[in-house]
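Title: [Solved] phosphoglucomutase (alpha-D-glucose-1,6-bisphosphate-dependent) 3D structure

Original question kept below for reference.
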Amino acid sequence: MAAMSGKVVQNVFIAQFYQQNRQFGTQYQRDCCAPYTRTLPPFHGGKLAWTSISSMQMRNLPKYQSGFVNRGTFYCSAASSATAIPSLDKVDFLKLQNGSDIRGVAVSGVEGEPVNLTEPVTEAIAAAFAAWLLDKKKVDASRKLRVSIGHDSRISAQQLQDAVSRGIASGGLDVVQYGLASTPAMFNSTLTEDEAFLCPADGAIMITASHLPYNRNGFKFFTNAGGLGKSDIKDILERAANIYSGFLAKGYSVKNASDSVKKVDYMTVYASDLVKAVRKAAGNIEKPLEGFHIVVDAGNGAGGFFAAKVLEPLGAITSGSQFLEPDGMFPNHIPNPEDKAAMKAITEAVLSNKADLGIIFDTDVDRSAAVDSTGRELNRNRLIALMSAIVLEEHPGTTIVTDSVTSDGLTLFIEKKLGGKHHRFKRGYKNVIDEAIRLNSVGEESHLAIETSGHGALKENHWLDDGAYLMVKLLNKLASARASGRVDGSKVLTDLVEGLEEPAIAVELRLKINQSHPDLKGRSFREYGEAVLQHLENSIASNPKLQKAPVNYEGVRVSGFGGWFLLRLSLHDPVLPLNFEAPSHEDAVKLGLEVASAVKEFQALDTSALDKFVQPQ
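Solution (posted by the thread starter after getting help):
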């Protein structure tokens, strides 16, 4: 009971603290930080430790220039104390895998979502990563490996960072904490060579759950070879399960990790590199964006640094930027460039401030989108078209790799107007990136791998899906246009997507598989879903109105009635997403009726969303 009470108090405290102090702990204040590194003071066994400060004073602490919580004054390590040992429930670690990421529930309070990413679970996962890294690196005993740790703005970030630190330290590795950081920065930390910032790191961990709700969290892992793949994550989770079994057998206790932990303001390095990239592209002009008005919407995630640390040093005006303060409750909108409310927010900011350009990031800055001066959204197919135009100017004829739900109009744009090749592959940013790497390895040049979600990776940037770097490529075009005498703001970007054919109707529906339905007959949801797809494919073959895509890597993609549909099986969930694009609602309904007719005999498939869509208006 003591453990449960401690956890509830801890979670309530953190939630209230972030709501009352959205700017407390802001990483990217406009003043530079002092020393680059500091040794972390000792952990205080999970208690909320205070040093000569009242709770009221804590709520009114000033912003720290270094961007990190001053642990000499205030601790909230969320580790265990002698009177509040975390409960050790049995955990199915493999269920925490989400493709090449790990995700779980870290904060209680949402009905039906019990916490499964506890501190002991987190510590076991981190210890497993340390063991995995030692096996991969095979260094001699004279050198200690070091792992960098960063997190987004989620309210569980601090407690998980501390648990990760203990797990890494338990494996005999050094820990470098970055505090609030972006996912791309974490990978970059394995490439940067600067001992003043304790770089390069041998491995990196980003604590994030992207755009998911406040109660979720998770981990992404990197080495200098890139992000870990699905098989690596499975290996780490299997190791973690064994370590956690030891906790269950021998008891779990918190060990002091402070001797192995240091802190670094690495985001200063990362932001500086982005600034240098724009200046270099502009011919080493100090302020190539001078006179441009650019607003940023960080959605209260980790991207707030971009306004003050990247745009302003380049000369841009950033007034009107919004939601730059980290707030893990995400009170304004979901930090997601695909979300309609999020895109509406940045569009309104552009128009109300008469800005030249708007930039929006997801929570951990590995995805992004833009809005031009007229309020036209540059996301999804438009962003892919824009990036394709930029990349094909630099690398004529190159292959652009995208996910499976991109439009036929995009294919025509890339291949007929730009002279490139469109390689439509599978959903999943890691799938798209790995396919681009594979194509290069067999002699087919590819320089861009990008999803409609806003994940985009460039060969020139180590195949890292970096939302900030994508925006740097757009800034480069603005700067070069200004240098050539153009004074029409973001029109240079809008002009690049001129001629992109866009559908009148674009819809995604989700058809869920009821895993408890007797029609599964003992099959897994994946087997059942594959049976649905096979039956649909067979029915299409005999339908003269429809044509199956000649090249397709995922699901069943079919053209007809002037548009197309794609039915595929979700990467992780018992869901069959159905995407339509058509020149009119009537044509989209015709496509929908074909799908509905083909899948109607599958009783475990919930087609209510499709049935509603095809009903007469």
